[in-house]
Amino acid sequence: MQKESNLMYWAKVGIKINLKAVGANHNLRDELRKLENRNMIVGYDVTHSTNMPFKAAGEPSLLGLVASINIELAQWPAVSWEQPARQEMLSDQLLDAFKSRLELWQKHNDDRLPAHILIFRDGVSESQFTQVLDRELPTIRQACRAKYTATQPKLTVVVSAKRHQTRFDPTTKEDMSASGNVLNGTVVDRGVTQVRYWDFFLTAHHAIKGTARPAHYTVLLDEIFRERYNAKAADELERLTHELRYLFGRATKAPDTVWEAGLGSDDEI
């Protein structure tokens, strides 16, 4: 038992060392090659101070932003900064942060810039969707205009939410995991979804105990998938989102893309 435990420990150390050496621990097979290899995926999240009375909470909120830099999606360099306490919408520093990610992508891709940028935004409620489109998206477009001299990149913005009460149960034994949950990769995009939004629920992880909580994704803007895949746009976005959950280089579990952004803000603490 001790020997097995040591092997697991050193395996985790090994994959972390490989990441720091700019190595690739996990690769997607061919999903992004369908988008011509010029793709950047971005995730960002805001972390607020916890266990503090609202009026007394003066500690700044911390923001972490990660972005891929290669076709393998194996490296996600992070940038983080502080902003006023309990402020969920990003400050003006988003402009410089996003420009720095574009420059880093350009450096690792023969001085080219990405043609498609898929953005995952975590931590906002439905009432804040308009603010994301009215405040954060224009800043991102401004960063792109500062770097692109000709055609602007196509953007897709997806909000990820984990704090909800929706759960799903398998209807047959064939669709049931060992813990009694739905199988990994289960997607629900009809019946319980909203009419006015393109949204879906994805259960990408294995719950050791209790009922698995799916992530809820809502597409606020799409300039990539509908244009390229037409009627199959939802299937392609759902498949890519699921596979991204297996690219977290520091572990073999399946966290969300915005989880790395959360780690970036945690490192700032």
UniProtKB/TrEMBL annotation:
PANTHER family: EUKARYOTIC TRANSLATION INITIATION FACTOR 2C. InterPro entries: Piwi, RNaseH-like_sf, RNaseH_sf. This is Piwi domain-containing protein. Residues 1-258 form the Piwi domain. One of its GO terms (molecular function) is nucleic acid binding. It comes from the Eukaryota. It comes from Purpureocillium takamizusanense. Pfam families: Piwi.
